[in-house]
Amino acid sequence: MPTATGAALSARLRGTDQVCLCFFGDGTANCGPFHESLNLAAVWRLPVIFLCENNGYAMCSAQARTTSVADIASRAASYCMPGIVVDGQDVLAVHEAVSTAVARARASQGPSLVEAKTYRYCDHQEGLEYPPYRSEEEVASWRARTQ
Ligand SMILES: Cc1ncc(C[n+]2csc(CCOP(=O)(O)OP(=O)(O)O)c2C)c(N)n1
């Protein structure tokens, strides 16, 4: 996330209309660089979009066990930028939310935080499924949404 913030600073200094789109997970939103990056991007009104793919789990830990807020996007208020929650399973909704953020960035109005609520059908990495941290029914219900 600091690298993305730096890329946005580079775009600004080079006088381009480039916008940096930074993807990260909900677990990452609990790490220090998330807060440092959002703060500096807001102070300098940088053309960067922070897009959190919130799949409900940081490795094997459910969001409710590790995260103080229900919506990661609500943290945007701490950094005076828009925080938008969008259905991450709806590609058109994501496109619309990101397009709005891009227009804002290109108008020199600064960064945005977009939170796409989604799911991870597989595990964070091979071999992390034990001990079980979620039910087969939960995975099946999310898979059913995409059919
Ligand atoms: C720069 C850096 N900091 C910390 C970590 C340690 N780390 C490994 S996985 C993880 C959290 C992953 O959670 P999430 O971003 O929600 O991804 P998911 O579990 O959904 O794949 C962290 C903080 C790392 N890999 N790299």
Keywords:
147 residues, alpha/beta, binds thiamine diphosphate, Rossmann fold, single chain
Q: How would you sum up this structure, described in words?
A:
- The protein is α/β, with parallel strands linked by helices and 147 residues long.
- The strands form two sheets. It has a four-stranded parallel β-sheet, sandwiched between helices.
- 28% of the residues are buried.
- Helix 1 (2-13) runs parallel beside helix 2.
- The chain has helices at 2-13, 32-43, 63-66, 91-106, 136-145; strands at residues 20-25, 48-54, 57-58, 61-62, 83-87, 112-117.
- The protein has a single domain, classed as Rossmann fold.
- The model has no long low-confidence stretch (mean pLDDT 95).
- The structure holds thiamine diphosphate.
Contiguous runs where pLDDT drops below 50 for at least 5 residues: none
Strand content: 15-25%
Question: At the fourth CATH level, what is the homologous superfamily?
Answer: Thiamin diphosphate (ThDP)-binding fold, Pyr/PP domains
Number of domains: 1
